[in-house]
Each structure stands twice: as C-alpha cells, then as structure tokens.
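WARN retry 2 of 3 for item q-0093 after timeout on previous attempt; input resubmitted unchanged.
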Amino acid sequence: MSGLSLRRIGALALRYLYLLRRSWIRIIELAYWPTVQMILWGFITRYLAGHSDVLGQTAGLLLSGVLLWDILFRSQLGVSVVFFEELHARNLAQLFVSPLRPIELILALMSISLVRTLIGVGVAVALALPFYDYNLFALGLPLVGFFLNLVLMGWTIGLLVSALVLHHGMGAESIAWAVIFALAPLCGIYYPIATLPYWLQPLAWTLPASHVFEGMRAVLLDHAFRLDYFLYALLLNSIYLSLGIKTFLAAVHQARERGSLLQSSE
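OK item q-0093 returned
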C-alpha cells in the first residue's frame, strides 16, 4: 500500500465527478432505480392488500406478468443493444457506405430482436413448468395477440432509444435500460390500471402494454379474451411504431449530415 498518492486519487475522482456533472442522464440515473422500485412495489402492495379475492391466483398472475414483461424488455433490447454494438465497433459508417438502406437496417434489427426474444423468453417459459408447475401457453390463443403487441412496443422503444443515442452519443446509452423500467409502473404488469392514482391512469392507457396486461388478467381471472384491449393496443402500436421508424430515419439522416457516424463518444 506504500506509494499511494492522494493527489492522483483525488484527480481521478475529480475527473469522474466532472463526467457526472456534465451528464444529466447519469445524475438522473442515481435516483432512478430506487424510485422506480419503490413505486412499482408500492402499487403491487396496494393492489394485493385491497383484493384478497385474487390472492389464490397471485402466483399465476405474477408469473404471467413477469414472462410477458420479459417479451417487451427483450424485444426492446434486441433492437437497441445490437445497434449499440455497431456503434461501439464504429461499423455504422461502413454499413452505410454499402448499398444498405436505413430501412433495411431497421428490418434487420427487428428480425434479430425477434430471434433473441424467442430464445430468451422461450428458455424462461420452459423452466417455469418444472420449477413452478406453470405453463404460459395455458393462456391459449390470446397469448399470440399479447406477444405481437409487446414485441411491437419493444421495437418502438428500441428504435427511439437508438435514435436518441445516435444523436447525443454513447453517454445516453443507459437510457436503453432506464426507459423500459420507467414505464413498468404505468403498464399494470402486476396490478390493474385502476390501482394507479386517477391522474396517472389516462397516461397509462396511452401505452399498448397497459391494454395487454389488462387483457392478460381478463383471461386469467374472467376466462375471457377482451378484443377491445387487443385492438386498442394494436392501434397504438401502429402509431408509435411509425413514429419510431421516422425518428430513427431522421436521426440517421442528421448523423450523416453532421458526419458523426464514425463517432461513438460520450
């Protein structure tokens, strides 16, 4: 331990402090995760405490929520993380020197996202059967509609996050992990939207996932497939995905104009 320099240690710590100070994303992230966990589990507790009639089905509701949520999470990461790998490798400029069109990149990202989601969630679904005697496929055909809407929403978020990172640099990369969990309390994964405060409920209903998870509970608790939830989610996804694609294409165009496709700085 001899030869330690408090000056060098302080200088390096000061450098990290400057990095933190110049990045509002990093500052927000410090309080972000504890806040999201507190809000999410607070609403779960409120719902279960006020609905003793569903306690007997809590395991099925929670496991279904977890597995369906992972579809959304994995599909979003399947787009954004793969795109970030191109940025880290500084390969984006080389891709666009080729005849590759931006829309073709988007379709390729969506395709690999679907493969990654099926693999990742498929393993979890398979293990849920021997571990918990729970079969997600017991949801029946509605599961197809749930899967479709969650994947579409994940792709939208992935494209928007990728566009943001392309515009602001890799310092915004943590948003890929943060945004999806920020939406979790609003999506009603483990509790109905009615559990939220009244002023938050209109915002929650603008998310396709909220309709998906309400539809999931209708299947599990009422044994009924709510077509209205499915159609609302599909309509919202069609609007948001179009916006996500346009935003990503605009970010690529701006990056080309600025000559920043080779950059991956903070």
